[in-house]
Design a protein that fits this description.
- It is a single chain.
- With about 130 residues, the chain is of the alpha/beta class.
- It has a domain at about 5-60 and about 95-125: Rossmann fold (3-Layer(aba) Sandwich), CATH 3.40.50.
- It contains five helices and three strands; from the N terminus they run βααβαααβ.
- A three-stranded parallel sheet has the order 1-2-3, sandwiched between helices.
- α3 crosses α4 (about 80-90).
- The protein is elongated, with a radius of gyration of 17 Å.
- It starts with 6 loop residues before the first strand and ends in a 7-residue tail after the last strand.
Length: about 130
């Protein structure tokens, strides 16, 4: 990237860094380190036109959340669809992002529209964690 006049690095991370879920201390710590690495790397490589950012993802509509929905729904005595609807109802946008919507945030950070953005993380989660 340095030899080519710059570029963009986007690290895919998790909102566990923001929400600190119980029993996930080691996982959260490792993801906080990834966020710190993005900020540090942004400072170190910015002089060569290389931008480093990240995205904090929450639940993403798709197979993984469906798998979680089955387990959580069974424990609550409801259907997976009811569990998903309850989960989405807790989000400010009342919508769990799709993989394409998450990819859109990454594409933005890679694009010239984000030419002045480095060392940042965008939360892509339907507003689950507002800071």
């Amino acid at each position: 990237m340095r030899d080519h006049g710059g570029g963009s690095i986007v690290l895919v991370n998790t909102g566990a860094v923001i929400s600190n879920p119980p029993r996930l201390g080691a996982y959260t710590a490792s993801k906080a380190a990834l966020a710190g690495a993005a900020r540090t790397l942004a400072v170190e490589v910015g002089q060569w036109g290389i931008r480093v950012n990240g995205v904090f993802l929450g639940g993403v509509a798709g197979d993984n959340i469906l798998h979680a929905a089955k387990d959580q729904a069974a424990a609550a005595g409801i259907t997976p669809q009811e569990w998903l609807a309850q989960r989405e109802a807790t989000l400010p946008l009342r919508h769990m992002p799709t993989a394409d919507e998450c990819a859109g945030a990454v594409l933005f950070l890679c694009s010239d529209l984000a030419a002045a953005v480095t060392g940042q993380h965008i939360s892509v989660n339907g507003g689950q964690w507002t800071t």
